[in-house]
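Form 7-S
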Amino acid sequence: MTAMKPAVRPARPFFSSGPCAKRPGWSVEALKGAVLGRSHRSKAGKAKLKEAIDKTRTILGVPADYRIGIVPASDTGAVEMALWSLLGPLPVDAIAWESFGEDWVGDVLKELKIKDSRKILAPYGALPDLKQANPKHDIVFLWNGTTSGVRVPNGDWISDDREGLTICDATSAVFAMDLPWKKLDVVTFSWQKVLGGEAAHGMLILSPAAVARLESYSPHWPLPKIFRMTKGGKLIEGIFEGDTINTPSLLCVEDYLDALKWAEEVGGLKGLIERSESNLAALDSWVRRSSWAAFLAEDSDVRSSTSVCLKIIDPWFTALDAAAQADAAKKIASILEKEGVALDVAGYRAAPPGLRIWCGATIEKAEIEDLTPWLDWAWAQVKAA
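Output:
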């Protein structure tokens, strides 16, 4: 326990789990090449959008026959486009172990009401039995639970001979974890997570099987314009070549391009994964020494390397009622914010009381190491109050 206030602050206090820290060294000068005051359908505007798609494919290793599109409304918009456009022909196994996954469960069972569908759930900190997923069903799941700190360890549980589609919300996993693309038919993410881009834009990646579903199936419910990806029974290819459905911010596109160029400089996907895993290891080293904090995900095989969730195990804390526990956890985050040490690190409101520390690739290992003494100090202030 650190009773004395630490002398060294992290170089940057940005440990939010979304929007996340910008890349090290970022400044507004990075945006000076943006195509502003021009139509996104101009030659220059479309070239920027196409560059963003092409660099995404190269860095992530997305197969050449998969389509990549820039779509409205961040990761949420991308997921909703997929669910409302593709689901219906088969029962759905909706898998969740935290709040956002439960949102997709709600879409499947309560909004779309897909017949014979089922939910496969686990509490915060754990992963469901993924082997329950039926390869004859469509499967909807997250790769990484942003609000629980639990990730899928691999894609071995997904059948290569599946009849259904796998729809994966990978927003806090992509660029930090190695995704098995041939196991995934739909992958979504937003720019504001691992690469620290600006919000409001989503990425939608479709396998050939997903495209075939779009071209052979029309939902019986109406689709808003921003969800429509086919015309006359054929995929609108322009969406996946930079001709977006609605007007994107070319300033945000420039910021994403800057982040992608930085990703190339640090070693591409391999370098990004190594940075995130190194940050998790630094936090793990502190947790092993801590008398009051532990990982919400107790199993290291399923522990997230990006949105790392901590629970409080000190007996003084666990003896409190639920409301008092929530209040104490919020006070730790408030103290850290007041000191300018760590911003937005309170646990998610629906998760067990605790802290959530972003360890994605745009965070430096030294920043995690400089943060941990402050965690002890803030905890000491709350416990002594």
